[in-house]
Amino acid sequence: xxxxxxxxxxxxxxxxxxxxxxxxxxxxxxxxxxxxxxxxxxxxxxxxxxxxxxxxxxxxxxxxxxxxxxxxxxxxxxxxxxxxxxxxxxxxxxxxxxxxxxxxxxxxxxxxxxxxxxxxxxxxxxxxxxxxxxxxxxxxxxxxxxxxxxxxxxxxxxxxx
Amino acid sequence: xxxxxxxxxxxxxxxxxxxxxxxxxxxxxxxxxxxxxxxxxxxxxxxxxxxxxxxxxxxxxxxxxxxxxxxxxxxxxxxxxxxxxxxxxxxxxxxxxxxxxxxxxxxxxxxxxxxxxxxxxxxxxxxxxxxxxxxxxxxxxxxxxxxxxxxxxxxxxxxxxxxxxxxx
Lengths: 161, 168
Known about the structure:
Chain A is mainly β. Chain A contains one helix and 13 strands.
């Protein structure tokens, strides 16, 4: 290769292959981590229990680590019920303010959001945030006793903004 | 390699970098709960004073054979709150027969030995259901105070006990 445009193209390609991307902003990978289950504790048949996103013991919690000040998109996959003994289920529901986003990583300093919808947040200037989740479990009056569980999934990505 | 090929390679490389920046990541947590066994409360025996004489108070202690008895059945080792709303101040019949000075014992076996003494009232008494059977047994005593001119006849009343889980 001897032409100047050709040399430029090769430089771009090689730079990209070796991790240098002069045309894109450099950033850290976005890493979500589940750190606390959404725990309803002991349920009494026939009595619904709502765990607040501000409950330090019962709220579900995720941490985010990524590029400082980056905007992220969050989406939950929320199951309609928990499963228990002999196929029994307990309905789960989530309200418009059961999600909480905190760039300060503080349970007392959250911005509420609807976990049923795709939402946006912005990482701190350290590239961190914590997401909190509340919800409601509604056992029936004849609910079979025993342990119940379900899996909640948080999916996040950079928006590029 | 011609210029077009070089350009394609560069675009491909830049695209790969761009795709890794925007790729979504996921994490999971669990939602968990434990459903408690529903509470069952049974009135097992009446508080029976038997024959009472005018002017002579008579006491039935919780340990006496004719004390009132309730049985609670629920989640093993769960804490419950026990209350007695509106304990009668009189037994009714041909007149009113005053009753009071209620006394109680609760135990995880069907006997008062080794049980916990408490005063039945509208205020909460906390107790733990048995770790194996989920039972708690309640024994109630009281004192009736017939007047000197108490009208002869049968007298009766109702003692109601409420039990709820505390969540502990």
